[in-house]
Amino acid sequence: MLIAVDAGGVEPAPHQIVGGVIKAAHEYGVDIALVGSKSLLHVLAGRSLKKLGISIIEASQVIAPHESPMKAVRSKPDSSIVVGVNLVRDGVASAFISAGNTGAVVCAALLNLGKIPGVERPALASIINLIPSAPVLLMDAGANIDCRPSHLVQFSRLGSIYVREVLGISSPRVGLLSNGAEETKGTQLVQKTYKLLKKTDLNFIGSIEGHDILKKAADVIITDGFTGNIVLKTIEGISDSWLFSLRQAGAVFAKAYRLPSRALHRDMGIESWAKRLDYREYGGVCLLGVNGNIIKAHGRSQAHAIKNAIGTAKRMVEQDVLQKMKEGVSEQANGSA
User: Which of 100, 109, 191, 250 makes the best surface tag, with the fewest CB within 10 Å?
Assistant: First the structure.
């Protein structure tokens, strides 16, 4: 297994990428290829290259966050994103991870890997892990702004396969995000999708509302990419505020009782809460529906998040999630034929 990691040097800083790769090589024992400037990465990775099975693959160009995704992918064939995706296409790498331009990652994957036969649109699947031992998968988290009902049904099937294989839930409950639980609530997209989902063999439980997301009402939450991205970033914003408040409270108690701050955080359960609220713990979102294992790490990812993203990629490869998605989509197509 070789996992390729975008180290193009835009965001986050290259030393954070390299730090996460070194941690992952130690913890997971997988071979990792850093994709970016050889001269810079040789300096940053140093002695870890040969000792930990880390290699460097040259990519002379970088796609910046503000660039138009399609234009950048076509005009920069030697960018770290395009080179990394092509490593998966050519069978050199089992998976590719990037914290760079989300649109460029999606465009490069679509153009160079293609879609799983039978899939109309790939989608970003994000794990929300605020409840202990009860993670929820949200999709689409931002790949598709405008969707049709058939797209959301396919997101439901892809998400169900992912949750079953990666999270070990045998019959994932699928909930359709809406502004009410009734079948007649929601936009035209939601109402039409509801009717289609009722006809599938998925464990569809109906529509759920925003407050149900954190109640573990469903294992897979389905929506369009516009709504899903807003939901995800709202949760991240609340999490950042909670983390800050929790740590401030811990510092006050530590000072008042003259106790070591770290020990007090542990005793009060703050560290446990912090892990559940911290986006770095799940590392990144998976692009499901393309013909390859692609993970989009958070744009603010530090070393810990990169390490966890590599862990997610390793699990996807080991459990052959891509092949199981191909089989699941093919069964759906044959069943509806």
Answer: 191
φ, ψ of residue 310 in degrees (nearest 5) = -65, -40
The C-alpha atoms of residue 124 and residue 295 are separated, in whole angstroms, by 9
Under a CB-based contact definition with an 8 Å cutoff, are residues 59 and 32 in contact?
Answer: no
Whether 283 has a pLDDT exceeding 70, the answer reads no
Whether 215 and 132 map to the same domain: the answer is yes
Residue 6: domain span? 1-119+289-320
CB proximity list for 319: less than 8 A, separation 6 or greater: 165, 166
State the amino acid at position 83 in one-letter form: V
CATH number of the domain within which 56 lies = 3.40.718.10
Q: How many Å apart are CA 252 and CA 265, to the nearest integer?
A: 11
User: What are the pLDDT digits (tens) for 233-265?
Assistant: 888 777 666 666 666 666 665 566 565 655 555
- pLDDT at residue 35 in the model: 96
222-238 b/e with 16+ CB inside 10 Å = b?
Answer: bbbbebbbebbeebbee
**Residue 59 zone, left/alpha/beta (φ > 0; ψ -120 to 50; rest):** beta
What pTM was computed for the model?
A: 0.86
List the end-to-end C-alpha distance of the chain, in Å, as a whole number. 37
